């Protein structure tokens, strides 16, 4: 069973009140030192995975820039294939391997748009990307470790299905507030604390005013 999916590390920077972005979508919670740490970690994994909202709102390139090492494969969850042609991900996909995971519900015109790019398109799930099936397919492609970098909806799906092995949370010295600001883990949430995955704190690293908390799932 363990080998039927890659090793999953959930990674994020949160404010003290557990937000990963403000209500107007400012998500710059990391420090310079923390970004270097993250990029070193990126260079050691086979792939980075994010949701389509993170791509549309932050327009990340998801490469290794502040450390030495190779770029991991980028995986985007985008059921309807709505990613913009102008996104940094698609604009750089001739240089950095990119997988867009879509569902069977993807409109034909979006599929055709994606097919014009040198990317791999993986189709799973009826109208939403089926995570378990996707991970199985990625495992067959020899992708052994995936760093999941959010956002909140994607984090919830991995947490809900207990589909992760480690979790690295950078606690940043900010208070964001706001009902509409995105929390680290979104979705419908658990009703009981006992439904939460059980975590063991492996290490705490202090980077000036930021704390890097490293957990493993029991
Ligand atoms: N502080 C940090 O470290 C950090 C890191 C990353 C992101 N962020 C912030 O997080 C925010 C975005 O979070 P978000 O919750 O709105 O969106 P998200 O998690 O980035 O993307 C969610 C979307 O991914 C698509 N998706 C497809 N299959 C999925 C599946 N199996 N499971 C989960 N999602 C799937 C869904 O759209 P479809 O149904 O259309 O496919 C879903 O609505 C941004 O504001 C960003 O700045 C912060």
Automatic annotation (TrEMBL):
Q: Give its E.C. classification number.
A: 1.1.1.302
Q: Where are the transmembrane segments?
A: none
The Bacterial bifunctional deaminase-reductase C-terminal domain sits at: 6-213
Q: Name one GO biological process term.
A: riboflavin biosynthetic process
Q: Which InterPro entries match?
A: DHFR-like_dom_sf (IPR024072), Rib_reduct_arc (IPR006401), RibD_C (IPR011549), RibDG_C (IPR002734), Riboflavin_Biosynth_HTPR (IPR050765)
The keyword Iron belongs to this UniProt entry's keyword annotation = no
Q: List keywords of the entry alphabetically.
A: NADP, Oxidoreductase, Riboflavin biosynthesis
- What is the superkingdom listed in this entry's lineage? Archaea
Query: What does the record give as its pathway?
Result: Cofactor biosynthesis; riboflavin biosynthesis
What is this enzyme's catalytic activity, as reactions?
2,5-diamino-6-(1-D-ribitylamino)pyrimidin-4(3H)-one 5'-phosphate + NAD(+) = 2,5-diamino-6-(1-D-ribosylamino)pyrimidin-4(3H)-one 5'-phosphate + NADH + H(+); 2,5-diamino-6-(1-D-ribitylamino)pyrimidin-4(3H)-one 5'-phosphate + NADP(+) = 2,5-diamino-6-(1-D-ribosylamino)pyrimidin-4(3H)-one 5'-phosphate + NADPH + H(+)
The Gene Ontology terms for molecular function here are: 5-amino-6-(5-phosphoribosylamino)uracil reductase activity; NADP binding
Quaternary structure? Homodimer.
The family annotation for this protein states:
Belongs to the HTP reductase family.
How is this protein named in the record? 2,5-diamino-6-(ribosylamino)-4(3H)-pyrimidinone 5'-phosphate reductase
Q: What is the organism field in this record?
A: Nitrosopumilus piranensis
């Amino acid at each position: 069973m363990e080998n039927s999916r890659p090793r999953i590390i959930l990674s994020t920077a949160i404010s003290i009140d557990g937000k990963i972005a403000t209500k107007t979508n400012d998500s710059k919670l990391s420090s310079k030192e923390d970004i270097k740490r993250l990029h070193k970690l990126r260079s050691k994994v086979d792939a980075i995975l994010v949701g389509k909202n993170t791509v549309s709102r932050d327009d990340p390139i998801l490469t290794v820039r502040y450390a030495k090492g190779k770029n991991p494969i980028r995986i985007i969850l985008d059921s309807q294939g709505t990613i913009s042609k102008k996104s940094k991900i698609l604009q750089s996909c001739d240089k950095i391997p990119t997988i867009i995971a879509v569902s069977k519900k993807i409109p034909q015109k979006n599929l055709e748009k994606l097919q014009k790019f040198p990317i791999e398109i993986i189709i799973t799930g009826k109208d939403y990307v089926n995570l378990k099936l996707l991970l199985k397919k990625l495992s067959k492609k020899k992708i052994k470790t995936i760093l999941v970098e959010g956002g909140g909806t994607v984090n919830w799906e991995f947490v809900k299905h207990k589909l992760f092995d480690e979790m690295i949370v950078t606690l940043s010295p900010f208070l964001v507030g706001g009902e509409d600001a995105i929390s680290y883990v979104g979705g419908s949430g658990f009703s009981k604390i006992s439904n939460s995955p059980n975590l063991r704190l492996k290490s705490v690293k202090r980077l000036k005013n930021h704390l890097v908390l490293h957990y493993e799932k029991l």
